[in-house]
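Lecture notes, part 5. Sequence design as translation. It can be helpful to think of inverse folding as translation between two languages: the language of shapes and the language of residues. The source text, in structure tokens, appears below.
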């Protein structure tokens, strides 16, 4: 049975002065899949992610999420609808412990009354611990987040982005700056979330993205060059030409 469409982008365009960063982009992402966005530098990948996340407003086109038009929705409204995002630069709170970073992310979904009465820390302990264990950070729970390695900070922020139980998670170059071993571990950490969360990921590491993604969309100069399964894209003559001449 084919899974329903969760994200639909139609004829999306976005300009920055004379630069046309996106030019009539179409994208379809089905529930329960990992969908990769790849392409040369400057092809529009991060701009597309930012438009989906609500950081940029498109000049033309629409964004449908879970059968709802969110083109004009704020990032907060999109988050409430089940869309979470982790951008390339980490935003963990370095002066708080790793444990408390996760706790705060989980508390964000609680009602203010519970927070004021300090009822949530004990109630969420099991969930915090489970997330730390899954992302291999349990042994660092009491350490300051700012003391983590770059890779560990990325894992912590992915865990925080998943704290709201989103339907869709957007990841912008999560393995940037990681060692080969950290990239391998990141793939292992992400694969289990497919059971409950769809993923759209921008990534330059082609080996990494081929290993975890079901579908790929290739962008070039703000347009969709090709889209299909990993096998389809590997056989695409158009994609081979771009990666041979421009990457």
């Amino acid at each position: 049975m084919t899974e329903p469409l969760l994200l639909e982008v139609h004829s999306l365009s976005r300009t920055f002065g004379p630069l046309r960063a996106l030019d009539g982009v179409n994208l379809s992402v089905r529930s329960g899949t990992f969908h990769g966005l790849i392409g040369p530098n400057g092809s529009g990948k991060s701009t597309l992610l930012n438009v989906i996340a609500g950081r940029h407003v498109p000049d033309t086109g629409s964004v449908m999420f879970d059968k709802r038009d969110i083109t004009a929705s704020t990032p907060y409204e999109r988050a409430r609808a089940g869309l979470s995002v982790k951008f390339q630069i980490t935003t963990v709170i370095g002066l708080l412990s790793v444990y408390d970073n996760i706790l705060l992310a989980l508390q964000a979904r609680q009602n203010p009354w519970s927070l004021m009465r300090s009822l949530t820390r004990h109630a969420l302990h099991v969930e915090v611990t489970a997330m730390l264990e899954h992302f291999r950070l349990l042994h660092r729970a009491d350490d300051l987040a700012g003391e983590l390695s770059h890779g560990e900070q990325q894992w912590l922020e992915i865990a925080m982005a998943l704290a709201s139980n989103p339907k869709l998670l957007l990841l912008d170059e999560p393995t940037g700056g990681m060692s080969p071993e950290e990239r391998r571990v990141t793939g292992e950490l992400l694969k289990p979330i497919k059971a409950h969360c769809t993923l759209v990921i921008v990534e330059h590491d082609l080996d990494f993205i081929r290993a975890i993604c079901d579908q790929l969309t290739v962008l070039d100069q703000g347009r969709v060059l090709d889209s299909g399964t990993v096998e389809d894209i590997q056989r695409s003559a158009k994609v081979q030409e771009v990666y041979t001449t421009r990457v």
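The translated text above is only one of many valid answers, since several sequences can fold into similar shapes. The longest strand covers residues 5-16.
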